[in-house]
Amino acid sequence: MTEQVNEDIGDLFADIPRAKTDNAAANVLLAPFSGPYDGAPQFDDAELSGLKPAMKAAMERNLAEVDAITDNPEPPTFANTIVALEKTGEALGRVYSYWGIWSSNMSTPEFRDIQEEMAPKLSEFFSKINQNEKLFARVKAVYEGEEMERLSPEQQRLVWLVYDGFASNGATLKGEAKERYAAINKRLAELHTKFANNVLHDEESYAVYFDEDEAGGLPSDFLAAAKDAAERMEGEGDYAVTNTRSSMDPFLTFADDRDLRRQVWEMYYSRGDHGGEYDNNALIAEILQLRDERVKLLGYDNYASWRLQNRMAKTPENALALMEAVWPAAVARVHEEVAEMQEIVDAEGGDFKIQPWDYRYYMEKVRKAKYDLDSDEVKQYLQLGKLREAMFMVAGELFNFKFTPIEDGVVPVWHEDVHVWEVTDRTSGKHIGLWYLDPFARPGKRSGAWASGFRSHDTLDGVEKTVLATNNSNFVEAAPGEPVLISWDDAETYFHEFGHALHYLSSNVDYPTLNSGVRDYTEFQSQLLERWLSTDRVIDNYLVHHETGEPMPEELVNKIKAAATFKQGFDTTEYLASALVDMRYHTVDPAGIDPDKFERETLAELGMPDELPMRHRSTQFGHIFSGEGYSAGYYGYMWADVLTADAAEAFAEAPGGFYDKELAKKLVDKLFAPRNAIDPAEAYRKFRGRDAKIDALMRDRGFPVPGGGDGESTIE
């Protein structure tokens, strides 16, 4: 099924009766996208009251489309089964565009009630399709038939992906096992939704307030935003630290008040772990038990084995081998970092050992002492608007894209903060798509940063569909008239998410399913784009002081580059801890599991340093418990980072460096444009001429290279 818009789903479905509704609000959500630029979601006319009837009507339509395929008396072929299936679900995809915005960008208690009601109904709907025996029989017939050999490689991969999607999701089950599989999916949908809403509840319900005399060390731009937050939230204090990473992280980095740092740290890392109605521990236990039961119905030893079979890692053992190869070096670096911090504490007369709420604060002191590098000084050159211009420049040089702002009101948006750009080919002027940017934190918006889309590229009906891509962040909005200044880490994240958008926009696949991603590969493209932030062309032209307009001084640039591997102990260890706990959760017998105890015991077994937490504690680990996108797959960021480090070395060695035209074209043609039309390992070999080498990752992070760097260690 596709989530892309197509106004004419083809002659095959011309006589299918359409579900009717008298609800005008629902009709807006169901209707083909309209307006200029090949149409876009009509967010200005969308009403939450129409969501349920629209979703129900779209599901009915989708089931009717599937019935038309299964009732076809002709023998199964690629055209009348696989392509026909690709054409289904477009109305549902349109509704999902609005659902996704209400879920992630504009959530309200009213939407969450609808979400909790509809999530199990959606699960039942997908089970009806995934377990449709007549449909799977037709798909299997194409997969195993003689026609398969005559298809193009892209078409063969499509058939395999469709077949595998059914086979891996219960299509082969019979009788009670089939019924139980569907029931588990329905219950998991409820649990995933409840988990996410519990985290959002805690993010909206807690804040730490402080007064002027407690504001020592905090930058003026942070205080201005914290003052606005306090006024908006009407709490007791001059300033407020909200319960989001974008507020927590700078506070823990700069705030002198140690007790306040502890309060903020405990608030943030306790999300979903307060006991009572919004506690996630029991939900985690049930999720793990149901996932384990479900995959055993399919004959797998554990959930991770099922999840990784079609990813680059292939097996949990391969994923663990990579993580465990890096873990000792990361932990060793943490001990070095802590020792450096403790020296400063002792020199200042502090009578305490470094605690998790001290790490960022004293690492900033180490940064200043070791590299004479002040993060707040760096921020003065990192303006959100100028960074966006830098990303557009990079996209132009590598992808030949041009971004042109669209006047407000021409394309509907879901919030006044959102702006839209048209993306065209710089040479031909061809329209590629639209790019939406929603940059700021606000109540009802989930934390973090992410990319998504409302329409992906395909040529299913002989017409090339254009792309609707979005980037979403949670930067703290500056006081009126002031620029938004962000940290270097946040600037890297900004580039990272833009990389996902470029992946969408560069697609040249013919079939919607081929826009899907292989999780431990799709992060590679976005992680690679981070590397252009530190290129000279970006630094020299876009990292300018927000007051003077002067470029970043060469001395400061050199300090940043000298500190490139700074804090890698913290960054790598907090990430790996979450990835390893995720993999352990999904490879053990979860019967009777106590998530809090399991987390503590697993970290102790790993030798997790006491001075820092895992990046996402279990009760707030939405990547793996608010859905299944990253479950048993959080390791994928590191797998992708091996590819990233290796590819970055290719650019560093190219005649034109990171702007080498020949290598950039190869990057787009071999790695971005094909999406999932080719096996990721094969795609990477086409780009690099070989598999990626793990040694590149170790060099990139400043860790010792095992075996002295003979370069033989690769991932496939």
UniProtKB/TrEMBL annotation:
Residues 252-701 form the Peptidase M3A/M3B catalytic domain. GO terms for cellular component: cytosol. GO terms for biological process: proteolysis. It catalyses: Hydrolysis of oligopeptides, with broad specificity. Gly or Ala commonly occur as P1 or P1' residues, but more distant residues are also important, as is shown by the fact that Z-Gly-Pro-Gly-|-Gly-Pro-Ala is cleaved, but not Z-(Gly)(5). Residues 63-178 form the Oligopeptidase A N-terminal domain. Its EC number is 3.4.24.70. Keywords: Hydrolase, Metal-binding, Metalloprotease, Protease, Zinc. Binds 1 zinc ion. GO terms for molecular function: carboxypeptidase activity; metal ion binding; metalloendopeptidase activity. Its cofactor is Zn(2+). PANTHER family: DIPEPTIDYL CARBOXYPEPTIDASE. Belongs to the peptidase M3 family. This is oligopeptidase A. It comes from Hyphococcus luteus.
